[in-house]
Design a protein that fits this description.
Elements (H helix, E strand, L loop, with lengths): L1 E3 L2 H12 L4 E3 L6 E5 L3 H11 L8 E3 L3 H7 L4 H10 L4 E6 L16 E5 L4 H10 L3 E2 L14 H8 L5 E4 L10 E4 L6 E4 L5 H8 L3 E2 L22 E2 L9 E5 L11 E3 L6 H15 L6 E4 L8 H12 L2
Parallel strand pairs: 1-8, 2-8, 4-6, 5-9, 10-11, 12-15, 13-14, 13-15
Antiparallel strand pairs: 2-3, 3-7, 4-7, 5-6, 9-10
Helix pairs in contact: 1-5
This protein binds threonylcarbamoyladenylate and magnesium ion.
The site of magnesium ion (MG) has 3 residues, from loops.
């Protein structure tokens, strides 16, 4: 059931979380499907609701960096990044502390844990009211694009959630950046709301995840964020029957339906619009979706990454 987020409904949601139930809530990136991270049973229900493979670990959300330090071991780089970007769209993968109360299932049995402090008033209020870390993947079925509005969650997960807190469309629109600092290097496992350029300004140049076959971030399976109809990138023309996902002031002509990520060519606006427009154009009466080029810099890297995954296969 969708309810507008306010003091009462947030209190209700916190009670449900403490009882081990699932609550969908907004963050600044996308809506999350939340559960008490310390309860193996609640976390198992998240995997079941999403139909998510249990080898794919969840992000654990906390209200403050101090709360995060109880769950994972910070080094100097992690502290500097947390100081610069938390609350915000950066997820840090760090070694679990020995006393870490988070269920092993949430971390898919790994000795690392992904943690983040969300920058969204409802998310913050919920974390404080619940009083426990909240494990929350994006609130969609595995393989679908992430929800940026409450009704996306309702359509995807329906009865599996006890309550959906509605606080309007999300501000950033793509998921958080996942940065692995558990080893000696630093590896971007997923491009997202905090850009590589912004992080590099704080800790210097970052490495990419080594592509050695073994998925370090198991969530980055290639066929992810799929649309039902084929999607092709870098389109310079529109083929018969295609829908167009445009970018910039001069959309290509000839599409059966057009959505423009940003007429002004603004990457922040494009990220905000991306998932809702992918859903809008994913219509069985269109032959496919042609996507105009989006610059591969800043937030454009997260946008192109999601489009590439949707285009795959
Ligand atoms: O913006 C976001 O990050 C949203 C909101 C709700 O916070 N959450 C989200 O969660 O996108 P999810 O589960 O859809 O994506 C989490 C990603 C996955 O790619 C997962 O494999 C990776 O983080 N991940 C989680 N724990 C990890 C770990 N210990 N090591 C490596 N990757 C991890
Ligand atoms: Mg997801």
């Amino acid at each position: 059931m969708i309810k507008p987020a306010n003091r009462e409904t947030i209190e209700e949601a916190a009670g449900l979380i403490r009882e081990g139930r699932l609550v969908a809530f907004p963050t600044e990136t996308v809506y999350g499907l939340g559960a008490d991270a310390t309860s193996g049973r609640a976390v198992a229900a998240v995997f079941a609701a999403k139909d998510r493979p249990e080898f794919n670990p969840l992000i654990v959300h906390v209200a403050t960096a101090a709360d995060a330090e109880r769950l994972v071991r910070f080094d100097d780089r992690a502290r500097r990044l947390a100081a610069a970007f938390w609350p915000g769209a950066l997820t840090l993968v760090l070694p679990r502390t020995t006393a870490c109360p988070v269920s092993l299932l949430a971390g898919a049995g790994l000795d690392t844990l992904a943690v983040r402090v969300p920058d969204q008033p409802t998310a913050q209020a919920l974390l404080r009211a619940a009083g426990c870390p909240i494990a929350a993947p994006s609130a969609n079925r595995s393989g679908e694009v992430s929800p940026t509005a409450a009704h996306h969650v309702a359509r995807s997960l329906g009865d599996a959630v006890a309550l959906i807190l509605d606080d309007g469309p999300t501000r950033i629109g793509v998921e958080s950046t996942v940065l692995d600092l558990s080893g000696r290097g630093s590896a971007i496992l997923r491009h997202g709301g905090v850009t590589e350029e912004e992080m590099a300004a704080v800790i210097g140049p970052l490495g990419e995840a080594a592509d050695d076959g073994a998925p370090k971030s198991p969530g980055m399976l290639s066929r992810h964020y799929a649309t039902r109809i084929p999607l092709r990138m870098m389109a310079t023309d529109v083929r018969p029957g295609e829908a167009l996902l445009a970018f910039g002031p001069r959309p290509l002509g000839g599409a059966c339906i057009t959505a423009n990520l940003s007429e002004a060519g603004d990457l922040g606006e494009a990220a905000r619009n991306l998932f809702a427009m992918m859903r809008e154009l994913d219509r069985p009466d269109c032959a496919g979706i042609a996507v105009m080029p989006v610059p591969d810099e800043g937030l454009g890297r997260a946008i192109n990454d999601r489009l590439r995954r949707a285009a795959h296969g």
